[in-house]
From TrEMBL:
Any Gene Ontology biological process: reciprocal meiotic recombination
Domain of life, source organism: Eukaryota
Regions crossing the membrane: none
A Pfam family assignment: Cyclin_N
GO annotations of cellular component type: site of double-strand break
Higher taxonomy: Eukaryota, Metazoa, Chordata, Craniata, Vertebrata
PANTHER family for the chain: CYCLIN N-TERMINAL DOMAIN-CONTAINING PROTEIN 1 (PTHR21615)
InterPro entries: Cyclin-like_sf, Cyclin_N
The protein, known as: CNTD1 protein
Cyclin N-terminal domain residues: 25-140
Coiled coil start-end: none
Length: 269
């Protein structure tokens, strides 16, 4: 799979601070804004990923200290003082969608004005260009949803017992949930992996690759969706996913458990 190779390439080049921008408040802001502007499902994930990549590049270029506390401040500023960049990322994401409702400058300005910001169209354009230039115009990258949809297609082709049509909306809801509760889910997964409730700093650092693995996320989402819709077919689907991706059934089980634990809100096995 082309996406599998791209995923591996991305994982081999992860910045140290990767994932720090995906704070719940920022993700929720982007999701709500995408919903307000009637964007398709892929746009909201693309906007989150664009914003994070932009901020990571900004930090890298400015050579700011790579400290967790300082990055938390960056996240706060993204909501309070860098809303313009966030809006620009949503605008750009809307233009990348195949079936999109394009966010015009007038729409974006009207929203910013409702938040008491007095930006001009020129400043809005310059903000979009700033994001594009910072990312070297390399913005159309596959999101986790693309991985989910591709795997659903392959499962259908392989005779998966669960039709993709009813499974797709469940997977989208679960993907939203994983974005919004990212830290909780991956904290659970890390504790399962190391069989310890207090991971070391080194273990947390090494776990970054797992947290940023879009293929694992997609497989875990589909597995969880099947378990919710049709538990009787779950083992068969997990076998299919294992054959397609090489991800072990145990890893798929653990990810599904972490997601379901978050959904149910309980840590009881």
């Amino acid at each position: 799979l082309h996406l599998a190779a791209e995923n591996e390439q991305r994982l081999s080049e992860l910045p140290e601070l990767c994932g720090r921008c995906k704070e719940p408040r920022i993700v929720e802001f982007i999701f709500l804004l995408s919903e307000k502007w009637h964007l398709d499902q892929s746009a909201r994930y693309q906007a989150v990923e664009l914003l994070e990549r932009f901020l990571l590049k900004q930090v890298e270029q400015q050579r700011e200290p790579c400290q967790g506390s300082s990055w938390s401040c960056v996240g706060e500023q993204t909501v309070s003082t860098s809303v313009l960049r966030l809006v620009s990322c949503v605008q750009l994401a809307s233009k990348l969608s195949l079936h999109y409702s394009r966010v015009t400058s007038d729409t974006a300005l009207k929203f910013l004005q409702s938040l008491k910001y007095s930006y001009t169209k020129q400043e809005l354009l310059e903000s979009e260009l700033a994001v594009l230039n910072t990312l070297h115009f390399h913005i159309n990258l596959p999101t986790p949803l693309a991985y989910v949809e591709l795997l659903l297609e392959v499962l259908g082709h392989n005779g998966c017992p669960i039709p993709a049509k009813p499974l797709h909306p469940v997977c989208v809801q679960l993907l939203d949930f994983c974005y919004l509760t990212r830290e909780t889910i991956y904290d659970t997964l890390l504790r399962i992996a190391i069989e310890n409730s207090t991971p070391s700093e080194l273990q947390v650092t090494k776990f970054l690759r797992v947290k940023e693995d879009f293929m694992l996320l997609a497989v875990g989402i589909i597995s969880t969706g099947v378990f919710i819709l049709s538990p009787g077919h779950w083992e068969q689907v997990v076998e299919h996913l294992n054959c397609i991706t090489g991800i072990t059934p145990q890893s798929i089980l653990e990810f599904s458990y972490a997601v379901l634990t978050g959904v149910v809100g309980s840590t009881t096995p």
